[in-house]
Design goal:
Blueprint lengths: L8 E2 L9 H11 L6 H22 L21 H4 L5 E9 L6 E2 L6 E2 L6 H5 L1 H4 L16 E11 L2 H18 L5 E5 L1 H4 L3 E2 L5 H21 L3 E5 L2 H4 L10 H19 L7 E5 L18 H5 L5 E4 L12 H4 L7 E7 L9 H15 L5 E4 L9 H23 L2
Length: 406
């Protein structure tokens, strides 16, 4: 994994704006229409080559594939990073309503997760969440996400899909002359947030997801790409425990997910893996987010080299101070969000540079890669997303001059 030894590197979290025709094809497929697989893959191959080139032109030095192989059937979409896995794991029955799954009790520590619709943040701001014009609702323009229920042993069935994703991305990197890129994959903690009618305990379900998804993780690393593991559940589950638990109980609850993830990546080269933590990408108040200081040690317990996390939005920017006290182990790389998906305002390059320099002064300039808070695709308008990438790159150049004296 690249570090910033000679200048601040730039990257992002994963999801990028899709072309309109790619979104339309995905919507038709999700609606049950038969889509020619060869034509679909050919269009994805073209789109991925294009999106890698656009990232390069915007100044992103470590690009991704935009998550184009993860179907997004509407412009406003917060769930494709996760919902794609429903088609890549056997043993699932699709069709459960996102907000209708029953509460889940952890057999490990007696914490109960509410349904998604009963989050504490939603309860506090119910009028805003129920108003489709407020900008808060996470579904504005489509039928919404359907969650599966596990009815049999979970297996991995996405071999052809991940092989195609890898081939498209490597072709894009080659065409752009770029030697390093990353691909995302959902971590077991988030993959297991589904209904369960098969496994005796929630812990069994989580580890079953770990065993299945390991195949995808290994495919990405074996292809010579950087693997990014997405697991907002480490932070986001906090808002789904009602009433609010003790911090100690929540950390024990979350450690099961950390252990499952470490189990899934055991033996894989940690210097090819990074982890992404966030508090959920929807544009809500987030007043019930758990503080970073309460989960930073959980994040660092994940056995990878790089850690990506939100650090630019107005709910979490102040938490850079956590790193005044917590020092990551030697060789670890921090990948803080420097521009945010949570606002349409495009950050000024000087603000971007200030944010980068803060982290560099705390953990060493070579150990900081400038990124986004979360994926931009489906969260902000495409024109705004690309403007944010350009200002990220401009700010990284300013920070490089300040930190290296060039």
């Amino acid at each position: 994994m690249k570090n910033s030894a000679s200048g601040i590197q730039t990257t992002h979290v994963g999801s990028l704006p899709r072309p309109d025709d790619v979104i339309e094809l995905a919507a038709r497929h999700q609606a049950g229409e038969a889509i020619d697989p060869a034509a679909w893959q050919a269009r994805l191959a073209e789109a991925v080559v294009d999106v890698v080139r656009l990232q390069q032109q915007a100044g992103i030095s470590i690009p991704g594939d935009g998550e184009y192989g993860k179907e997004m059937g509407q412009r406003v979409n917060y769930g494709a990073w996760w919902s794609y896995s429903f088609q890549r794991m056997g043993g699932l029955k699709l069709g459960a309503e996102l907000y209708r799954l029953p509460p889940k009790r952890s057999t490990h520590d007696h914490i109960t997760l509410t349904s998604f619709g009963d989050r504490r943040d939603r309860a506090m701001f119910s009028a805003a969440y129920n108003d489709p014009e407020s900008g808060v609702s996470s579904n504005r323009g489509g039928p919404g996400m359907k969650l599966p229920v596990c009815i049999d042993k979970i297996t991995y069935t996405g071999q052809d899909a991940i092989a195609a994703d890898i081939a498209h991305f490597k072709a894009g990197l080659t065409a752009a002359g770029i030697d390093e890129g990353f691909m995302t994959s959902v971590a077991p903690g988030s993959a297991s947030r589904i209904g369960n009618e098969y496994y005796k305990t929630e812990e069994e379900l989580i580890f079953a997801c770990a065993d299945a998804m390991r195949e995808e993780y290994k495919a990405i690393v074996d292809a010579g790409l950087i693997l990014q593991l997405d697991d907002p559940s480490i932070a986001e589950n906090w808002d789904m425990v009602n009433p609010e638990p003790s911090t100690e109980a929540y950390r024990k609850f979350s450690m099961v997910r950390v252990e499952a993830l470490n189990h899934a990546i055991k033996g894989l080269p940690k210097d090819r893996i990074r982890f992404h933590l966030c508090w959920g990408s929807w544009h809500g108040p987030h007043v019930t987010d758990i503080p970073m200081r309460d989960i930073v040690e959980l994040m660092l317990a994940i056995d990878v080299q790089g850690y990506s996390f939100e650090a630019a939005n107005v709910r979490h920017e102040h938490e850079w101070r956590v790193w005044q006290e917590v020092k990551p182990p030697s060789g670890k790389i921090l990948i803080p969000g420097i521009v945010s998906h949570a606002t349409n305002v495009v950050e000024h390059p000087e603000l971007v540079a200030d944010r980068i320099v803060r982290f560099a002064n705390l953990v060493g300039r070579e150990n900081v890669i400038a990124s986004t808070d979360c994926g931009l695709g489906g969260r902000v308008h495409p024109d705004i997303a690309w403007a944010k990438f350009k200002t990220l790159a401009q700010g990284a150049e300013l920070a490089t001059r300040q930190l290296w004296g060039n």
